[in-house]
Amino acid sequence: MQSDKMPFAIMNTVVTAVAIACGWALLALCALTGYDIIARRMLGFSVQGVDEIGGYVLAITASVGFAAALLNRMHTRIDLVLGIMPPRLCAVMNTFAALCLAGFAVFMTQKAFITLNETLEFGARASTPLQTPLWIPQSLWIFGIVLFAIVSCVMAAHAVWLLFRGQIDTVNKQYGPPSIDEETEASLAVTSPQLNPEGQKND
Q1: Phi/psi of residue 31, each to 5°?
Q2: Cβ distance 93 to 163 under 8 Å?
Q3: Among candidate residues 85, 114, 98, 146, the one with its CA nearest the CA of residue 2
């Protein structure tokens, strides 16, 4: 998105690194699940806690994915009306959407910390064979939510700043839902990275 500007470059770097770590965690989970299946079928025993670990990995990956999706404009937007709005009103609505998302992210963060505080207060553990202290996966889960809150607040502030400066086209380009052409170009870039923008194969 604004990867060439501060602080978006920093956020992109951090979110990308954490997302890659989550990807490795998912691969490790797949390997552990595969080993558990083989062990059940051929060795007669089961690895305890694979489903529990999978739940933790899913929750943590999802929370990190919020920020990654936001930076790449991948959150779902209903744009039936935006297409017929004048550009200035459309910019106001896109800024309002960014502010609402930031408010929701802050609300999520507050509730997540309340949950973690209760876990620490009662020393809660998972009612599973692993007896995992719940503050460990919850802390990693909250890290992803805090990251989402930071990214959304910075982007909302940037959208407001652009709007007050009268940069209507920039607001709509960076904070509006992606157009069909943008989504098509992104899909082609992923599926055919060997092609240049003119559709010709690179040497």
Answers
A1: -65, -40
A2: no
A3: 98
